[in-house]
Amino acid sequence: MENFSQASFIDNNVSNDEMVEQSTFNHPIMMPSTMDQDLTPHYFDINNRCMSPSSIKTQPCAVQPSTLFDDNTHGKGEFSVNKTKAMNDKQEDEEEEEEQQQQQQQDNDDDDDDEYEDIDDDDDDDDNDSTWILYKDDDGEDQDNQLTYHHTESQELKDLDWKDLPNFIHNMDYDHLNSHERKRARFENQTLLSIRRKTIAANAIVRLPYKGSSVYICSQNSFQQKVDNYMARMGAYKLIHQLNGVNQNASKKCLIDIVERVEIKLHNLLRSKSIAKRQYLAMTIDRSSLILNYLYFVPETHKEDMPVRPITICNDGPTMNIVRYITPLLWSIFDQATNCRRFQNGAIDVIHAIEKYAQMGHLKPGTLFVTFNMDDLTTSFLHDQTMSALKRLLIEQLQDKTIDGLTIDIILQLVHLVLQNQFCVYNNGLYQQIHGGASGLPLTMLLTYVNLFYGQHSELMKTIEEKNEFFGRYREQAILTWHGSKDEFRTLIKKSIHLEHTRHLVTMSIGSTVHFHDVEISQNKNNNVLESKVYYDPNIDTLPNVSDEPMENKSKQFYAVLYRAVRCCSDLDKFHDERRHIQISFLTSGSTPEFIHSGIELFFLELGLSRCSFSYLLNEDEYRHLRQCIIQDTELQMELKKQRELQNQHTLFLPCPKWIDQKQLADYKKRLKGWWKKYYGNEPQTKHIQIKWVESTSKNLTNADILVNKRPPIRLLTLPKNEKNKNNHDTHSYHQQ
C-alpha cells in the first residue's frame, strides 16, 4: 500500500494512550497512495465519493519519509525491520566487499564441477538495477499457479495475530540506529499505530481496493452490509457454524476432517497404484505448516456503488498441493483443445500475439474483437455443470485416457475432492463454498474457463477453431477475433446451455475496438491496419504500471511502462500521448523532473537512440527503429523463457535456509552439493539434474498488514499440536507397509 500517510486524517500530536473523538464514516473515503517524496498534505475532496464535511473531525497531517523504508521499498510502503536506509548507508561498502570475497571463494569451490551444476541466479532480483525483465524466472512454479498480490501473506504474520502487531512494533530493536534515527523511526512507527487505533476507535475498516492503489476507509457496519448483500445475492457461501460456545473449535475439527479425507484418498490411490509415489509426495499434506483457508473482502472501487469481492487465502490449505500438481496438467489439455494462447504479461503479450496473427494474413478486413470478463463467474459456477464439462474435455482430448500417468477417473476424483472441501473462516464463522472456486486456488480459473468455453459455449469453440480465429487468455479475461457480424456472434452465443445462470456473471464486449486488460485494440476501418495503445480504466486511480502489484523499484517501474508504451503504441502519435501521460503521472506522484529525464535518457540509450532524440519529439524513423528494437527484445526474452522452462524440467528447486549468514549459507550449499554428488551424481536418471536455490518469495511486512485486519485468529485456522505431530510418523508407518 502506497502513500497512505500523505492523505492521513490523523493528528500526530495525539499520544499513544489518547483516543480521538469517534468520526462518523457515513460514506467510504478514498485516499491516494503514498508517494516517495514529501508533499504538501492533501485535504480530502469533500465532493469525492459523496463524502460529507461532517464525516471528518480530525486534521490532515504530513508524515515524513521513514528511515525504516529503504530507497527500493518506500514506494511500495513496505515496513522493514531488519533492513533500513540508515543501515544501508553505513554498511554498504563493508557488505559489498564481504560479498565479493565470499563469491570469489564460492566460484573457486565450483570450478571442479563437471556433470553437476549448481544454479544460483540472483541477477533478475537486483533491486538496484533499473533494467526491467519481461519474463522473470518462476523458480519452478507454473505460471498458471501464480496468484495475485491480494493472496500473498507476510512471513512475519504467519504465526502472529493482527491484535499482537502493536507489541511486535513496540519491541523492535533500535540499537543499530543513532539517536536521531531512533527518534524518527519511533515517531513513524507510532504514527502507524495511531492511524490504526483511531480507525478502530471510529469503528472503521481500512482496505486496499481490488484494483488500483488508493486506500479505502469505510464504516465497519456499512462494509459488513455490503458483504452480507454479496453473500445473499451470490449464494456461494453456506454458514456451517458460528465459532463460539459449543462450536468454538468447529474450524479445528473441520480442518482435521479435511486432512483425514485427503490423506485417506491419497493413501488409497497410492496403494492401488493409481498414482505413483512421486505424485503422492507432490500432493500430500504437510501438517506442520497447514492453515485452514480464510476469507475476507475488498472493495471494487472502480465499479458503481463500490461492491465487494471475496478473497480467499489458501496458500497453506489442505488441498493446495493437489491443486498445484493437477492445474498445470489440465491447462495444457484445455489450451490444446481450444488453441488458446496464455498471456503472462497482459498488454505486451497480447499485442505481440495478435500482430503475429495479422502478419500471417489471418486478420481480414472488418474483423471484430470479442472480450470476456469472468470475475464473477469464478466464484459462482455450478459444480455439477463444471465437472460434466471437464469430463467431456478429458474424454475428447486424451487419446490414451491418461496424462502424466493419471487416468480420467482419477483426475475427476481429485478435482471433486478439492471442490467438496472448500471450507473457510470468515467473521468468526465457518463457511463452505458450495458454488464456484476459492479465489486463492489456481484450479478455480481453469474450471471457470472449462465451464464457460467447453461447457456453455462449446459450439462457439468449434466455430472459432473452424474459422481459425485468434483466442487468448490473461487471468479472468479472454479475447478472440470474429470474422463475421455482431448478430451472427450473438446468435451463436444464445445457443449456450445454462445461459440464465451466467447472464450477469460474465461481461462480454464485441466491436472493432475493445479494451483488454491494459491495452486498447482496434482495426482501422479506412486501411484495415491493426492499431493499439495502452489503456487506463478511468475509474482506477493508480500510477502507470505493467502489473497489478506496485513495483518495489520506481526506476524499474518507469522503465517498464516506457517499454510497454513502445510495444503497445502502434504509431508515433499514440506513443507521444502515452509518454506525456507517464511523465505527468510520475511528476504528480512525487518523482522529480531529473528522475524522469534520466529515466527516459537511459531507456533510449539502451535501445540505440542518440542523445539528440531526448530533447524533442521522436520522428517516424526513430520511433520505427525504437519499436523494432522492442519487438526483437520481446522475442528474445520469449525464447529465453522457453529455454528456462526446458531447463526447469531437469532442475531441482531447493529453498534457501533463512536466518543464517552468508558464510553459513555457502557452507550449507557446499555440503549439500557434496552429498548430492556422492549419492546421485553418477546415477543415469539424476546425474544431469541441476540444483537451483530459491529465495523466499514472501513479501515484507507492509503498512497494509498493520492497518488492514483480514485474517482470523491463528488458533481458528491450525491443527492442535497432537494432530500436527501425526504427519511424519503416520506417513512413515504407511510407507513401511
UniProtKB/TrEMBL annotation:
Biased amino acid composition, Basic and acidic residues: 721-737
PANTHER family: REVERSE TRANSCRIPTASE (PTHR21301), REVERSE TRANSCRIPTASE DOMAIN-CONTAINING PROTEIN (PTHR21301:SF10)
Organism classification: Eukaryota, Metazoa, Spiralia, Gnathifera, Rotifera
UniProt feature, compositional bias: Acidic residues: 91-100, 107-129
Region of interest: Disordered: 67-145, 718-737
Transmembrane parts of this sequence: none
Protein name in the entry: Reverse transcriptase domain-containing protein
Organism: Rotaria magnacalcarata
